[in-house]
Amino acid sequence: MRVICSKENLMEGINIVQKAVSSKSALPILEGILIEADGELKLTGNDLEIGIECFVEADIKETGSIVINSKMFGDIVRRLPEAEVLIEVKDNHVVVIECENSHFEIKGLSSEGYPEVPSIAKENTFSISQRIVRDMIRQTLFAVSIDENRPILTGSLVECREGKLTFVSIDGFRLALRQYETESKDIEFSVVIPGKTLNEVLKILQPLDTSLSIYSSNNQIMFDMGRCRVVSRLLEGEYLNYRSIIPKEYETKVRVNTREMLSSIERASLITVEEKKYPIKISISDDKLVVTSNTDIGNVREELRIEMDGKKMDIGFNPRYFIEALRVIEDETIEIFFTSSIGPCTLRPVEKDAFAYMILPVRIKND
Fold first, then answer.
1. What is the pTM of this model?
2. Beta partners for 51?
3. DSSP 6-72
C-alpha cells in the first residue's frame, strides 16, 4: 500500500474514527485504525459496539491495507508539518510515514484479523438534515440514564410515526422529548440507540442542512453522512411508554422568559457546595415566580415576572435538571405546567409541541 494525502484531511479522518477505537482491549487489533486503499482511502475504527468509517481524499499509488495503533498514529500525524503525508506499507507490516523532513517507521498489524463493520440493508431509509438531527440529539441526550441496572434507559428512543420524528431520553428523574415534522409520511420505525453512540454522532454531525441518511436493520443502525458512516448496535428491550408519563392536566401554568429563568436558577445554584445537592425552591403567586436557595454557606432570592394561570404553589427541584433543560431550549418564551406541589412539572413551547421536558420535584424543608 502506498498513498499520499494532506495532513489536514488525514487528521480529520483520524479524529473521527478514533471515537470508535478501544483505548484498552483484550484484542490489540481493536486498539488500531484499519487503513484501506482501494480506489479511495478509508479509515475504520471499531470497538464491536460502534464502528465508524471515514473516507479521506488521497492519491492512491498502490492498493493495500494495514492496521496501525490508533493513539500512536494520531500522535504522529498531529505533530507533522502542514504538508503532504506519504503512508507506505513495507514487508512484515512495517509502515513508513513521511512528511517533509520527518520519517517514521512503525510496526503495523495485518488487516486480516480486523472485525468487519456490519453491513446494513438499505431498505428502511430515512433522510433528514444533519442540523436537525444534531439539534435533536443535543436537546435530549443530557437526560439519558447512566444507571447500568436499567440498560434500556442508557439509550434514547428514536421513533418515526405518522410523519413525526421523535427523540426521547428518560433517566428516572426527568424526561426530555424533541419532535420534528418530517416529509416522510410513509416511514415508521422505533429503535433505542445507546447514549454513547449518539454522543459520538453528535460530535461528527455538522450544523448544516446537508442530508443525513439513517438505516436500521435487525439490531443495528447506521448514520450515513456521505464521507463518514457510523454503525452501532441497538439496545434491546421495551422502552418506557413516555406518552403515559407526561402529565396532561395541571394546577398551575406559568409563561416565562427562558433566558431570564435560566440565569436566575444558575445564580441560585451558585451557593451550593459540590458535596451537598441543595434543592431550589420555586414559589408562584400573583404573576411572580420567586427562586430561593438556602444552604450552609448562605441563601439567595431571585424574582421573575411571569404570566400565571392557576393556584399559588411552592415546589422544590434539583437545579441542575432545570438548568440542563433550559440551556437547550431556543424559544424566547416557554410555558411551565405544574401538576401539584409534589408532582412533576413540564416545560413546553408556547406554540406547537416541538419539545417537552418533564422534571420530578424534590422534597424541600419548610422555612
1. 0.91
2. 46, 231
3. EHHHHHHHHHHHGGGS-SS-SSGGGGEEEEEEESEEEEEEE-SSEEEEEEE--EEEE-EEEEEEHHH
Task: Report the distance separating Cα 184 and Cα 187, nearest Å.
Answer: 6
Apex 186 CA angle, 181 and 189, nearest 5: 80
Query: pLDDT-based confidence at 106, cuts 50/70/90?
Result: very high
Distance in angstroms (rounded) separating the CA atoms of residues 51 and 33: 11
Average pLDDT, integer, range 156-185: 92
Q: Where are any strands of DSSP class E within 57-171?
A: 59-62, 64-69, 84-89, 94-99, 102-107, 125-129, 155-161, 164-170
Q: Which domains does the chain have, with CATH numbers?
A: 2-113 (3.10.150.10), 125-243 (3.10.150.10), 246-359 (3.10.150.10)
Q: What is the mean pLDDT of residues 84-106?
A: 97
Rama region for 19: left / alpha / beta (φ>0; ψ in -120 to 50; rest): alpha
pLDDT at residue 123, as a whole number: 66
Contact 197, 50 (CB under 8 A): yes
User: Whole-angstrom Cα distance, residue 178 to residue 167?
Assistant: 5
Quote the mean pLDDT of the chain: 93
Question: What is the C-alpha to C-alpha distance for residues 292 and 284, in angstroms, rounded to an integer?
Answer: 12
274 Cβ neighbours under 8 A, 6+ residues apart: none
Place of cell 494495514: 66
Range name among 214-223, 226-235, 297-306 with the lowest pLDDT average: 214-223
What value, to the nearest 5°, has the Cα angle with vertex 160 and ends 218 and 239? 65
What dihedral angle (degrees, nearest 10) is formed by the CA atoms of 217, 223, 229, 231?
A: -40
